[in-house]
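Holo model, uracil. Inputs:
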Amino acid sequence: MPICMPSPTDAQADLIAYLDFHVEAGADAVLDERPHDRFGEAAAPAPSLRAAPRPEAAPRPAGLVPPPGSPPPAAPVQPRTFGRAASAQPDEAASDARARAREARTLDELARILADFDACPLRFTAKNLVFADGNPGARVMFLGEAPGADEDRIGKPFMGRSGQLLDKMMAAIGLDRTSAYIGNIVPWRPPGNRNPTPQEVAVCRPFVERQIELVDPEVIVCLGAPATQTLTGTKDGILRTRGRLFPYKLPTREAKLLATLHPAFLLRQPVQKRLAWRDFRALRTLLDGTA
Ligand code: URA
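Output:
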């Protein structure tokens, strides 16, 4: 005899959608009103939205019985270990990052060292290290802020909508991923696409600085304020710094650093594309040596 399983009520479906939204957005812990030492708890299973224990006494509402053919319930989330990110002080982590980054003699070595580096907490929430894309021998290197969901999934920078716009902007001045190198200031996706914290940027910075040294580009294009501020030390916003050329010291020469608008900003404010177009034309002129 066929068994009819009730579907979730509208209210239950709303609640499930609400929880899914938060999980997708990167929320992976249930908080309450008291502070918790999450790093101290790292050895114990982290409370998780997906694995939140149900109160024993509360009977499961009939509407939440999964319909026939639904996938089996998700396995309980395994406790995460946060490596040294759990205990390292930010200064200690940054000086360790400097020492480790200096060890790299090639980009491949640098990528391997980064993949093993466990003093940045972002690596424990990201799916992949997003090291670089493009041609390491290129004369121009583009730097964004941090990977988003598409980049995290694929493991390469600028793969989503911002990346498509960046590709078009590069194409407009005769560049593509065979003639440019692309990276980020922070190589792991911050959960839920939040901004990386100053501590996370400080820990990752020695690696991106070494990456720039190893690529040795003539021109570094900083996409947006975080990349520009990290590499130049300016506190000015991007609408002030865009179009400006900063000197950038490399071991054997001085490169030019050009600040411009981030493609994600241009997607939100398309009217500003004309400013970015000015900057890209200036970039073309620089590369042509006609500046
Ligand atoms: N935004 C960035 O800053 N970097 C990426 O890789 C993608 C989007």
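The two ends are 81 Å apart (CA to CA). Strands lie at 133-134, 140-144, 181-184, 219-223, 245-249, 254-260.
Archived with the compound record.
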